[in-house]
Amino acid sequence: MTDTQPKSDLPPDRAPRSRRKRADEIVDSIKRMIVEHGLGPGDRLPQERDLITQFAASKGTIREALKALEVQGLISVRTGPGGGAFIERMSEGRAMSLLSNFLFAKSISIAHIYQMRRALEPLLAASATPHIDQAGLARLEAIIAVYDHEPADAQERWTQRMAELDFHAVVAEYSDNPILAFTCRFLQRMLKELTIAQDIYVQPEPVQRQSGIEHQRDLIAAMRRRDAAGAAAILAEHMAEAEQQMLGLQAKLSDRFLIETDEPKRAAARRRTA
């Protein structure tokens, strides 16, 4: 820096940030407008020309902002008579798909997922305990009946493994914390979609699920008596055990893969020495 250059007294972490794009600012302003005006799914945003006037922006900038909102799933833009920008209801499935896309190249592992589940599932159980009703408890008991016996074939084995995750999804329905419930359901969905987890689920390995079923039945009992602390403690133990089982099955699968991969090399070596 020369003596003629202005100096800044701000530390590096407080230096002025680059200016945001005008379209991004408009996106945020439209979101605030939706909340402040109490707009909901099906309601129409102001027409394009009115947005141009309101935000003193060009047509291209307004269209860029509307396109960003559409990509986020917050609005849909319809053309023709009666068209315009309409507010959409963001489905949980779409939100999870967008988040999955963000994490697609992040090398997510079973260990990563269970680290989160061990931390969050006990909180989820505690938050659901005061709110779950008899119908919810009956649903949990019915789900256990899906996997409380050995599977007859590969299809039933897969159905059982999916039902084990569905048990926790039902618990999440009764949580009074929507962020916690969404996050836990997202982790459950990731286990259903993660390739290595799917490979584990289709293996004909005997699953030691009796202890897990006992934990789940104990959880139902704790929730029935409105014991939130007890429900959290049961889920903490259950998640720790489930993590150990999944990582153990993953290790077995990896060992089997290495053996199957190395066998052709060993066979070729035997032929060369014969």
CATH fold description of the largest domain? Four Helix Bundle (Hemerythrin (Met), subunit A)
Q: Provide the gyration radius in Å.
A: 26 Å
Weakly predicted, low-confidence segments = 1-18
Looking at the overall shape, the CATH architecture of the largest domain is Up-down Bundle
* DSSP helical segment count: 11
Sheet with the most strands: spatial strand order: 1-2
Structural class: mainly alpha
Average predicted local confidence, pLDDT: 86
CATH superfamily of the largest domain: GntR ligand-binding domain-like
Give the tally of β-strands: 2
- Number of structural units classed as domains: 2
Topology summary:
Blueprint lengths: L21 H15 L11 H8 L3 H13 L3 E4 L5 E4 L4 H12 L6 H19 L5 H14 L6 H20 L4 H16 L1 H7 L8 H15 L3 H46 L1
Antiparallel strand pairs: 1-2
Describe the structure.
It is elongated and about 65 Å long. It is 68% helix and 3% strand. Strands 1-2 form a two-stranded antiparallel sheet. It has two domains: 68 residues, Orthogonal Bundle (Arc Repressor Mutant, subunit A); 176 residues, Up-down Bundle (Four Helix Bundle (Hemerythrin (Met), subunit A)). α1 packs across α3. The chain has 274 residues and is an all-alpha fold.
In summary, what is this structure?
It is built from eleven helices and two strands.
Essential attributes:
single chain, 274 residues, mainly alpha, Arc Repressor Mutant, subunit A, Four Helix Bundle (Hemerythrin (Met), subunit A), 2 domains, 2 strands, 68% helix, disordered N terminus
